[in-house]
Amino acid sequence: MTFEQKQEPTIQQDTLNELLKFPLMEALTGRRSRRFCMGAEIPDGVLAFKSKHKPMPLSELEQLLLLSTMGGVTGWHFAIMRDKKYAPYLSNYCNSPVGRTFPSAAGFITSEIFYTDDNGTYFFPTRDFHPPINIVDGKVDLQEFLSAHKSRIQKLSNKRLYIPREEPYTEGHNIWIANHGGSTFVIPVGDLAQHVLSTICFYTINQFPIYDDMETPGAWKDSAKVRSSAKPFTDEIKECVTLQAQYIYDAYGKFPATTPSVFLLTYLQAQHIDLDFYDHYFKPGAYLSTHKNHMRKWHNNSST
Q1: What would the DSSP string read from start to end of 15-76?
Q2: Cβ atoms 125, 112 nearer than 8 A
Q3: Nearest by Cα to 147 from 125, 129, 132
Q4: Rounded to whole angstroms, how far apart are CA atoms 218 and 228?
Q5: CA-to-CA distance for 49 and 11, rounded, in angstroms?
Q6: Rounded to 5 degrees, what are φ and ψ at 241?
Q7: Distance (Å, rounded) from C-alpha 261 to C-alpha 24?
Q8: C-alpha distances in Å from residue 257, one per residue of 138, 192, 193, 201, 261
Q9: What is the pLDDT of residues 143-193, one digit of tens each?
C-alpha cells in the first residue's frame, strides 16, 4: 500500500494544495525553533510545563515532505562555470550532475542522510541519486516527486536509534528534547573517507564520469557536447594527486589525515508542537496559522 492510499483523498489533496500555496515570505519571517512538542516536559524554571498530550509521530506524508525537502533532487544543474585556469574548457571540478533542494559546493554532496523515529532507523541515500522525474519551469507533480524519493528509503532497524542524552553525544542545550518520542530525528552524516578517496583519487585518475560524451543526460539541448567539453586532467595532475594521497596514507595510516573520517555537526528534529505551551507563556503570534490548523487539516482531528 502506498502513502497515497493511506490517507483520505480529500484530506491529502487539500493539505498538499495548501502546502503548494504557502507564501515564501511567511515561511521566512515565521521561522522559529519551536522545540516544545506534544508529550514534552520542562520540569522546572520559569517555563516549567508538562504536556497533557501523548507524543504524536509525523504521518508518512509529512515525513516524506520533510526528507524530500532535505535531500530532494530537482533536476539537472547547469554547470555554468568559467575560470581562467580552465577556459575555454568547461570547468571540471563539479562532482554531481544534479540540482538539489539543499545546496552543496561544487556538487560534492559529502553527507548521507540517516533518520530515526518511533518505528525504526532508516537510511535515505542522497549522494548518487539522479532525477528520475521530469521537471519543467520549476513545476513538478508532487505525488510523483515524493514517490520517487520514497523509493530510496532503506530500513536499517525496527527500533529508534539510541543516542545518549548527554554530552558529547548530543549538543548540551538540546539534551532535554533531542530524539524525543514522536519526533523524526534526521542525521546528516559526512563520510570524508568515502568522499575524498572516491572523488579526489578515483575521479582525478579516471576523470569524472559525468564529463563524458556518452549518454549522461543534462539540462542542455546537446548534453554530450557540453559534458565532453570539460578540461581533461593531465598526466602531471594525476601523478601529483596519487603521490600525495599515498604519502598521507603511509604517514598517518588513514585518509584524510588529521580530520575525522566520519563526522556529524548538525541534526534536524521535526515534531508536532504543543500549542498549549505557547498559548500559556507567549504573546499571540508565537506560532503560525498553519500550526493552529494543522491537526484539523492534516490529521482530521479538531480536539488538539
Answers
A1: HHHHHHT--HHHHHHT------BTT-EE-SSTT-EE-SSPP-PPPHHHHHHHHHHHH-EEEE
A2: yes
A3: 132
A4: 12
A5: 32
A6: -65, -40
A7: 37
A8: 42, 11, 10, 15, 9
A9: 888 888 898 899 999 999 999 988 888 888 888 999 999 999 999 887 766
Using only C-alpha atoms, the chain has a radius of gyration, in whole angstroms, of 23
| Triad 101, 289, 283: Cα angle to 5° | 115
**Which pLDDT tens digit goes with each residue over 210-250?**
676 566 778 888 888 888 888 777 788 778 878 888 888 89
**CA–CA gap between residue 185 and residue 172 (Å, rounded):** 16
In whole angstroms, how far apart are CA 12 and each of 16, 22, 179, 300? 6, 16, 27, 10
Cell of 131: 532525477
For 28-40, write each residue's pLDDT tens digit: 999 999 999 999 9
Q: How confident is the model at residue 206 (pLDDT cuts 50, 70, 90)?
A: low
Alpha helices in the chain (DSSP H): 3-6, 9-20, 24-29, 60-71, 142-150, 192-196, 204-206, 223-227, 235-252, 275-281, 289-292, 294-299
Cα 243 to the chain's mean position, in Å?
35
- C-alpha cell belonging to residue 57: 509521530
Extract the C-alpha cell encoding 250: 603511509
pLDDT at 201 over 60: no
- H-state helical runs in 87-141: none
